[in-house]
Amino acid sequence: MSDMITADLVDLDLSADTKEAAARALAERMVALGRVTDLEGFLADVAAREAQMPTGLDGGIGIPHCRSEHVTEPTLAFGRSAAGVDFGAADGPADLIFLIAAPAGADDAHLTILASLARQLMNADFTAALRSAGDAATAAALIRGEKPTPAAGTGATADTTGTGATANTTDPVATTDTTATGATADTTNTGAAADTTETGATARTPDTGATAGTPDTGAVSAAASAETAPGSTGRDSAGGSDRPFRIVAVTSCPTGIAHTYMAAESLENAGREEGVEVVVETQGSAGFTRLDPTVIAAADGVILAHDVAVREKDRFAGKPTVDTGVKAAINRPGELIGEVRDKAARGEVTSASPGATPVERGGESGEGYGTKLRKWLMSGVSYMVPFVAAGGLLIALGFAIGGYEINKAPSVTDHFVWTQADSWAALLFQIGGVAFAFLVPVLAGYIAYGMADRPGLVPGFVGGSIALTINAGFLGGLAAGLISGAVVLAIQRVPIPKALRGIMPVVVIPLVSAAVVGFLMFVVIGKPIASAQSGMTDWLGGLSGTNAVLLGALLGLMMCFDLGGPVNKVAYTFATAGIAVADPSDSAMKIMAAVMAAGMVPPLAMALATTVRGRLFNAAERENGKAAWVLGASFISEGAIPFAAADPLRVIPSSMVGGAVTGALSMAFDATLRAPHGGIFVVPLIGNPLLYLVAVAAGVCVTTALVILLKGLRRPVAGSAAQGAGGGADPSAPTPGAKEPVAA
After folding, report:
1. How far, in Å, CA of 606 to CA of 461, rounded?
2. Using CA atoms in the order 213, 215, 217, 219, what is the torsion angle rounded to 10 degrees?
3. N or C end of the chain: which has fewer CB within 10 A?
4. pLDDT digits (tens, 9 = 90+) for 358-376
5. Looking at the whole model, is its pTM more than 0.90?
6. Spatial separation of the C-alpha atoms in residues 95 and 144, rounded to whole Å
7. Which of 65, 110, 259, 306 is labelled catalytic?
8. Which residues pair with 187 in a beta bridge?
9. Are 93 and 25 in contact (CB under 8 A)?
10. Beta carbons within 8 Å of 220's beta carbon, 6+ residues apart
11. Which residues contact residue 250 at a Cβ distance below 8 angstroms, ignoring those fewer than 6 apart?
12. Which of 311-325, 367-381, 555-569 has the weakest average pLDDT?
């Protein structure tokens, strides 16, 4: 880790009062050393990662991190805050802040070192040493795993607080913590760590990856050795044997750098305390080593702690399983172990696949069916959107080059002239049309995937294609996806002889599910859905006057409600479904125009507000405002998320009002749009472009005015006038004792 952190990347007196300001202060140190090439771009990537899930951890730790194309080499910066910075942890602000920057293509070796740091953060002695470090060089050395002053063993750190304790380390990264009389730790493996806390206990780690602290192996055992501390061998609560209860676990997070390995360390520590064997497979950015099948077979229970899909989950079928988010494993590992043991005692096992679905795994257990349905649908939409963007923009470019008659051009396989613009326009249009043809099958296929994993793909795609064949369209795709997932789940619940299980996923399930879904779509529900789709299309085509304006206002409200969340995606999908044909109706193109216009409003309004009344925003928000100009102009509503997260009660309602104004005006002005994305960069493809821009500007001004008004009405912070006059601290920043509305 010596290449990743130096004293220049350490700030022991971090004065930032927000997580954005803290990230900026540490990132500026990276920029100064040439580790980051674009400060604003990198901070935008950090903010995007933070929006997925807060990076604060119990115990006063914040670990903002991301992969970014603006990072030249894996880098770690550390800041210590006396006042603390809120990173969303349940127990309060963080005083130890680690900013982890990984290049988009970081190599496994460096990611493994970052993972090692993540594990160290679960060691109370390590964090205590950082809190007491007197200078930057000492803190950097501690993080690198070095001892500030040379000691026996190259680079080894030994903490011995008991009489007669002995540490024998022969590896540069080995760390030994012995805290009891006569404790002896012998570590002979790279990155190995032994923690012994009982009199006379001996921990040996002779094999690569056999113990905690080796995230590169992916498999870690907390108590697998026969030479564990006295009393660590418990009685199997399920079977009553003399061997300890055994758990296999998988941890993974979206970035795969920090939470993945911290969760593994936390589970291992809890297992040691409770006398339970815990073997963890870390599915992180550095890749993963699969658990030995014999270890899985011998396990009494399974813990899946993750925010992304667990790879090869079928390995864990038939065992008591707890499926939860990665932060649960960090914050309450003991409870998860207890849940697994209780399930084993009751004989609860999974039938065909552990957990339920790929998209359910990001949340806590016990979710209602409404939440699950939303996740299933969003799974399909998220996979469909790239096809919408690619196909729609190709079609729009074809129209822009060849005119609106290009949809009548012959196939380019029969007629293509290299020197004619019309041939190129026809080519773009026809490629876009092919991409659009995938929309409904992809939607249906990945809704089914969200419900039943890979077995749902075949019936889902088949059902979606049938929906196109019978003109059931977007509604047919939704129905086909849900039916396909339900059929597969029903098949998986049927008891199957062991001899036939091998052919189930490749023969039986695809055959039976595709036949059932095809029958239902062709014969039973296809025609009613097609009639409903036709009726909705006719209704949209008949909208005019007040009805069209009201629809535009409603779509504008939805686009600005959660800034890229589920409600926003519903409105966007509704609009793109209307233009996902070779010759969309005029009403469908009006809806698409209104949706895109409203989606541009929140980030543009926040950018304008920080420009005209900067004193109402802190320094980090003013910097975010600069980036919001580009994001808003590009139709990326997420550019307003940092502002909404910091002050939702003012920003979100203001954005919704402005979005409704823009959506209504766009419909009233009869603006049309054939492209599903692009912002101001596709203005040449917009019908009535000048009035369209007026609609966007009106909504931006309304939102800006409301945000400024609402922020100006909040109770002044004590001393802010003096600070503002003196040009010192941001006048909007809270001071101790000042009352400020609580952000939801």
Report:
1. 41
2. 80
3. C
4. 444 433 444 566 667 777 7
5. no
6. 19
7. 65
8. 169, 205
9. no
10. 209, 210, 211, 212, 213, 214, 264, 268, 278, 279, 280, 282
11. 280, 281, 282, 283, 302, 303, 304, 305, 306, 310, 313, 316
12. 367-381
Residue ranges in 243-368 assigned as alpha helix (H): 259-274, 293-298, 326-331, 333-346
Closest CA to 585 of 634, 554, 544: 544
The catalytic residue among 66, 70, 110, 253 is 253
Q: What is the 3-state secondary structure (H, E, C) of 530-560?
A: HHHHHHHHHHHHCCCHHHHHHHHHHHHHHHH
d(CA 220, CA 204): 14
Token code pair at residue 314: 């079928």
Helix (H) or strand (E) holding 675: none
Coil, strand, or helix at residue 465? helix
Question: Rg of the chain's alpha carbons, rounded to an integer?
Answer: 29
> Catalytic annotation on 701?
no
CA distance 454 to 458: 8
Cα separation of 224 and 294, whole Å?
14
**589-645 confidence digits (pLDDT tens):** 899 999 999 999 999 999 999 999 888 888 878 888 888 888 888 887 877 877 887
253 is catalytic: yes
Sign of CA dihedral 617, 621, 623, 624: negative
C-alpha–C-alpha distance, residues 333 and 264, integer Å? 9
DSSP state of 737: T
